[in-house]
């Protein structure tokens, strides 16, 4: 079955170009002009990835991205953000909200196709299944096949990057992971992200874990070295 993508773009000329380019790559594209229509489509259809414009007639595309990342069902959907501005603030905000990639307009259709295929390729590459250091005390359950993490029996609404970070920490529970190692695990070797990106995502992960269990800090900071996950309380 070809991958199914949702394109949310209000410029008909850009939309036609993107659809033509991606359909030539064998992908199936649904197109929405408005955020409201996109929300309806997402609620009733399973998409393998989302291409999301920032400036739309009925709102900012980043608001839809924020909504998706707050719901476990859609938190892991790969999202590529488009922006007419190309300004750093759009790029940083999109990535911090959980976008997997970012392309500024005007863009090369071939480059966009390559970025989309890269997203889809990485989406089917699951990290190793985590092994608990202290099985009986482990509140985490890593569903590597579904790319979802359960904590104290509850599914966590994680972005793809947050899931990969937490899965990597869990797989090496008790061990200190450098920021470089975590960047490679969650973003890949070709990432342009920085240590600040890791710190931001760790901060968000901690907040999501505290929302379920505020009695313990599971992620520890080791100054100048990195982060570790401690799964045994006490």
Automatic annotation (TrEMBL):
InterPro entries per the UniProt record, alphabetical: CheY-like_superfamily, OmpR/PhoB-type_DNA-bd, Sig_transdc_resp-reg_C-effctor, Sig_transdc_resp-reg_receiver, WalR-like, WH-like_DNA-bd_sf
Keywords assigned: DNA-binding, Phosphoprotein
UniProt-recorded name of the protein: Winged helix-turn-helix domain-containing protein
Example GO BP: regulation of DNA-templated transcription
Residue stretches making up the OmpR/PhoB-type domain: 132-231
Residues the record lists as 4-aspartylphosphate modifications: 53
SUPFAM superfamilies to which the protein is assigned, alphabetical: C-terminal effector domain of the bipartite response regulators (SSF46894), CheY-like (SSF52172)
Keyword DNA-binding carried by entry: yes
Membrane-crossing residue ranges in chain numbering: none
A GO molecular-function annotation: transcription cis-regulatory region binding
Signal peptide start-end: none
Gene3D superfamilies per the UniProt record, alphabetical: 3.40.50.2300, 6.10.250.690, Winged helix-like DNA-binding domain superfamily/Winged helix DNA-binding domain
GO CC aspect terms: cytosol; protein-DNA complex
DNA-binding region(s) in UniProt: 132-231
Source organism of the structure: Diaphorobacter aerolatus
Domain Response regulatory: residue ranges: 4-120
PROSITE patterns for the chain: OMPR_PHOB, RESPONSE_REGULATORY
